[in-house]
Amino acid sequence: MNPDHLLRGAGALAPALIADAVTVRYGDVTALSKVCARFEPGRIHAVLGQNGAGKTTFARVAAGLVPPAEGLVAVFGRQLAGGDVAEARRAGVELVHQSFALPPSFTVAEVLQFVGPISGLFTKRGIECHWQAWLDSLGLGLDAGARIRDLPIEMQQSAEIARAMVSEARLLILDEPTAVLSPEGTERLFARVRELKRKGVTVMLVLHKIREVLAIADTVTVLRGGELIAGPLEARDLTSEGLAELIIGDGAARLDAGDRAALVGAAVGQHDNHSLPDAPPALVLNGVSTAASSGGKGLNKVDLTIRAGEIVGIAGVEGNGQRELVAAIAGLDPLTAGEILLADRRMDRAPLAARRDAGLRVIPFERNVEGLSLSSPLWENWSAAQLVAGSLLAPVRPRALRSAAEKAFKAWDVRFNDAAQIAGSLSGGNAQKVILSREMDSGARLILAAQPTRGLDIGATMAVWKALRHARNNHAGILLVSSDLDELFDICDRIVVMVSGRAVAEFTSPWDLQAVGRAMTDAGKQIVEEATP
Amino acid sequence: MEDLIVAFLRSGTPLVYVTLAGVIAQRAGIWHLGLEGMMITGACATILGIVLAQSVLVGLVAGALFCCLLALLFWFVVEVLKANQIIAGLGLTGLGLGGTALTLTAIFGSEGAVSAPFGLPRLGAAFGAFGGLSILVAAMPVVVFACWLLLCRTRFGLRLAACGEHPFAARATGVNPVTVRLVALLLGGPLCALGGAELAAGSLQIFSVNMTAGRGFMSFAAVIFGAGHPLGATLASFFFALVGALGIRAQLTYGDRIPSSLLLALPYVATVIGLWISARMRGGNTAFSRELGQQ
Amino acid sequence: MTGRLYPVIQTGAFILLALILCSLIFAAVGLSATETLRAILDGAFFRPNALSYILRWGLPLLITAVGVVISFRAGYFNIGAQGQFYLGAICAAFAAEWLRGSPAFVAVPACLLAGMAGGALWALWPALLRVKAGADEVITTMMGNFIAAQILVHVTSGPLKDPSGSGQQASSRPIEAAWRISDSSGSSLIIIAIAALVVLLGWWLVNRTSFGILSGLAGRNPVMVTWQGAKVQRIAISAFVLSGALAGLAGSVELMGPNGRLASGFLPDHGFTAILIALVAGMSVIAAAFIALFFGALTSSGLWLPVMTGLPSSAIDIINASIALFITAKAGVFRGLLIRLRR
What we know:
heterotrimer, A: alpha/beta, 6-stranded mixed beta sheet, C: mainly alpha, 14 helices, globular
């Protein structure tokens, strides 16, 4: 296609977005390969695919954040030079980022002022009044004077959407907006998206759950491995099964039906209860509380028991105490009240090294920060867990550690060249396998797995699930924190819902998505009501 | 009492100007340890301008130009070559200290001191005891207020803060942090030059090698102590200046009992205490992000 | 093999860039860049007895630099080598004063140990401020340098003042001649042995102990090591104290060896040069041993320049500062620029 052909019919009916043979490379990795697609205005388009399919890259190319190596992007008939956000914004595209692009110390009004069109001196009260009126006209229910870091996740998303609407976007792209929301929050978001559509805004939603796509989208586009697989297809012609096959590709048939449904968010998976009621508890929390930190409120009298040989899921909207829970069990947050027993031993004050000795293992939230030192060699990353157990002056034989690490990596099917290469050179899935090879040894009695599959592609996700199930069958207790309810439903024996640092409800199979969703939001309302009598 | 205030304003004003430069850089996301080098460059250029061209204006303009040149170099190394800010900042400081010493030797044949026949314009007799202060002392509150307006009450200031706090947020709205940081560092150039000018030509009318004696680093500490806010950092530098002025006063009064060299160390001790207090106030961390470019 | 060579080439490229900047500065103040650089090289490597001068200046620098490597590897920017060096010399001088009259085999080790203790203490308070309160060590250690310089002025003009001393620079009474570990030429077997021992122990600590591996990980990612359950505070304090002790050792070696007495404001660039050595050596102890000799040569050249060629010694400061400016730059940037230019 040549550009003239692309731009034909510029004007009211010009396509909202045209991508013509768009290719994006990050270094040696091709993130998008010759993607051609055409999105009509005034509709809700879903871009669907697994992690690593290139969805986010596609969204960023359209928003001008990432320059395409080859190919053309045109918005409402205007061809973009590419790689220039300001140009894309002028053309009417705004992108709502998955991890929001809002400076935490800013107030909502300052965020809007910062992206807005008005320069010159302002007063605090002046911009708050101005933007409050504007926010009210959108019906977003945001307080212009609130600081971003004090807002709950769903409100931060609203602020991010408000930020995107300041320039009166005609094409609004939302990157994985549902990943951080409760089921009810998702409903509210979708209502807002339909409202935007009524106002004539074209919306592109990057999603990875079929259930959500079928609930909202007019058209569906499927990406896999950086290539366009199909689309945009009319959503009403599609079935859940057909989409699952498009997303997963050839390997779909080889997957267990429950796992497959969970991977693509097709239906709520069911699974038989493995719980061994007689097994001794691997972990007991009695009335555990921690102090509020800058990041959140802290735990509030949490009671929790995990028996050997069961997987207990922690569900909840992010920022409701999951991080604090993991940090408290790991001994990185001091308790203000309550007790922690690991395999029947009091461990309230024990340092992490002692807890590791007792069989605690941690797969932390942030793979690249808490899990690995990206600029250090793989073998050093791997051997850290053994080294902390001994004295600081203990002699070390690097060669022996290296070969032990290599052996472990091979057993876990890590793709690597050399144990001396830096951890940052591995893909996300391989990096997570390095962590698994370190944390899931035979001595593991209690495993804290915090968002262990976040950002991983299907193969790596399956490897993590397999490892967790294997550990459970070897009578380890597992605490699985995940914001993906499909994942929890698929592999957990029990699910505990956390709201505002409390464990508010517990569920067992058969799962009820609505009930779990209600627990995630209703309990929150109750707590707010209690707090403000 | 009056002479204490005069001494306080004299030692505080250079710090305030340089601190403002540090605040602007810090808000844009650059920890500016090159302040010391820029300050001494400003001091040297001002005195040389007065000595060689018989003009204060030439001195100030030359100082501003040289400081902007250093700022540009610093920006290139830190933002384009992605060097470590702290080490590069120390290098910039070394360049300023060594460069001014080299310049003195090249022009006058020896390292040491150069005195100028006259200094910055004074306030004059109408101000009584304060008449000996330079106009830069009087201009200081105006400059502080202007910086506050720019940083806290304009869209440019918000953009600057976004670049420092969350560069991705800036990029996501079409603001290039690399460019904004260049502007921030260049804004700091003239401010450092004014600080140096006030130090060398405000009351002393002399330039000597290493005469800044760590004031640039104290300014940097004031930026941290003041949490990167222009008013807070100004207050912090006043605090350091007050300790310095009290030290000088104590030297006059108790000079026979307390060794003067230990009194001279007071501002440095105050800086350490200031950092300690601000770390405690902020619940435990003023350590700034840095990772060495280790191979 | 290219993988190993790459960092070396990168370092070389940036040092070249630094030298270009130096040449520009020399030209700007009216010096001939090529002649100045040649004079510096002559002074460094080609004057009579060059090797002895290189060892005299390089070995103390090496001792301090190994300490800097240890703290930088652990992720702590201990900029305070200069202050710790001074405090080491001061403590050794006090020890020498108290031990006056005792035999050399008691006094010399005692003075060296006192120097190490002094340096370690001067590193301990910034370490505690950093670890317990979170106050950044860059500024605290820097202020420590200024405070230490004032203490040195006080000590040399007060408690340890040499009453017979004259001239502008205050200094202490000389060390007993029998205790000197070298004459004023500064190269002696004892100093070489001390430096070699420091390099060996430093290499072992960094590459063959749990402390070495964990501090290397902590320096690159302290959060990860915390999540592994390491005692990060203990690692941090050990790293600070070790680096301070080595700087203090260098201070006492200078005192007991070439200097022979404490002089106010002596070797003001020692700490900064040691930091540069550690950076140029890419945090490797073995590489630091060679780089230290190179910078030792530059230092000796700086003292030779004004005497023999009339060039200012601050030319060396300019070279050092330019290297500091560029040494941490990332070469990957060049590749990125090339790709952008080709488009």
